[in-house]
Amino acid sequence: MSHQSPRPNVVFILADDLGWGEVGCFGQSKIPTPNIDLLASRGVKLTRHYSGAPTCAPSRCVLMTGKHLGHSEIRGNQQAKVKLPQFTEGQHPLSDKALTIARLFQKAGYATGAFGKWGLGPVGSTGEPNRQGFDEFFGYNCQALAHSYFPKALWKNGESIVINEKPVPGHKKQPEGEVTMEAYQGEKYAPRLIMAEALSFIDRHHQQPFFLYLPLTEPHVAMQPPPKIVEEFPAEWDERVYRGDGGYLPHPRPRAAYAAMIRDLDNHVGDVIASLEKHGQVDNTLIVFTSDNGATHASANPDFHVGGADPLFFNSTRELKGFKGSIYEGGLRVPAIVSWPGQIPPATTIDTPSYFPDWFPTLCSATNLPLPEGLDGVNLLPLLTGKTSPGQFVRPEPMVWVYAEYTGQVCVHLGDFKVLRRGLRTNRPGPWEVYHLVSDPGESTNLADSRPDLIAKAIEVLKSQTLPNEVFPMPECDLPVVEKGAPKAKTQGKNRSRQESGATE
């Protein structure tokens, strides 16, 4: 008989670069995701849920701290060594002043474990997982090293564990010759080891309340999924070989490989569900499944997106505009599912807008933890459980994004309207754009000329909601000037490809 804790467990599963339409319950027709769909059948789908940022590290910072990008310490994927040359890997760290949701769980007596990709500070820095509230960590500390699924080593807390004596780096071009899957496979597949540690964590802690954070790497490129899963998908899908000329590793069957990564992600979700069932903890566990940002964006190769991905073939963003790295809907709107049997009604859908800062207060409410001051999100639990109707739900402050990379972008949601501006860290900032998301989710009609009032309101919000940040500075959003020292924009395709395949993420 399983011991039932008086406080629920929390499992937070974060996919990496999973587009809004890339799972079955959100409209995906080519890739089966039965386990993710099972979560949706047991709980609620949030169809207008937004990530913390359009790329990895800042999105994870928003998630962990409950502060939107205007207040967030981390507003980009910048490597730690840019400001802290003593570190050779990892992203700029969270400070020791940051209060993460993991710290709160840990203080309350929860066992806390993170397994997957961290990206919020190197081992030895103030941002390492063990100094930010996690009893246990296993996986990639640095996002750039997570480009390979067969890396030389993974971190177990503060120790680097060698897993592949012959690692397979995540970047290579093969302009000529036969491209094979086997050439880019290694001995030990990192996701398999990461999931083993995560399942062990559940086995060891199921008799006490636990917080399991699973920032999984799939379907982020490079594409190195198990060939056996690749073979599950039709050979006729792949008319063209991908040779690595859009970043990351070549693959002979890029569409099937991408589908296999999402299929394997779904398998991981199934393993978690099975483990909770084994220990009788399904009804006592709140599970959140979502993604850190939208689907992979375009590359220098016109036939493929970065890493050989083909979001157009899979209709990854459905009707939404933009991809990862963009504050358009396709870069920020992500699939989100919450399951908590007995507390959240099964098979329900909520189209009320929500975003990553909301998870901190929501999880505090679900576990009866004290709510810290200074959070930017709102408690979604009454909405999720049906105690508050969508019509009664009120968000006291607009949703805000202040993103310092990919040319510098800002965005504010004002009711059903969205106001944004791009290119702020270039010498030619773009114009303001205004969209009505209910009637125009694809952001095809810019209403800026007819709604200067909304632009003025957005500027007011941004000025009041953006704190200074020396590491990730941004110019005043209403002044078309280049910030001193800010990098100038390159051509979109080349610049984005460089950012993806280089040190940023």
How does the major sheet shape up? 10 strands, mixed
Question: Count of helical segments?
Answer: 12
Radius of gyration: 21 Å
Computed structural class: alpha/beta
Kindly state the number of beta strands: 17
Shape, please? globular
Give the percentage of residues in beta strands: 15-25%
Q: Strand-and-helix sequence, N→C?
A: EHEEHHEEEEHEHHEHHEEEEHHEEEEHH
Provide mean pLDDT, rounded: 93
Low-confidence stretches: 479-504
Distance between the termini: 45 Å
* Fraction of residues in helix: 10-25%
Strand adjacency order, main sheet: 7-6-5-4-8-1-9-11-2-12
Strand and helix layout:
Blueprint: E1 9-15, H1 34-42, E2 44-46, E3 49-50, H2 56-65, H3 101-107, E4 111-117, E5 136-140, E6 153-156, E7 159-162, H4 190-205, E8 210-215, H5 227-230, H6 254-278, E9 285-291, H7 311-314, H8 329-332, E10 333-334, E11 336-339, E12 348-350, E13 354-355, H9 359-367, H10 381-384, E14 399-403, E15 409-414, E16 417-421, E17 433-436, H11 452-465, H12 492-501
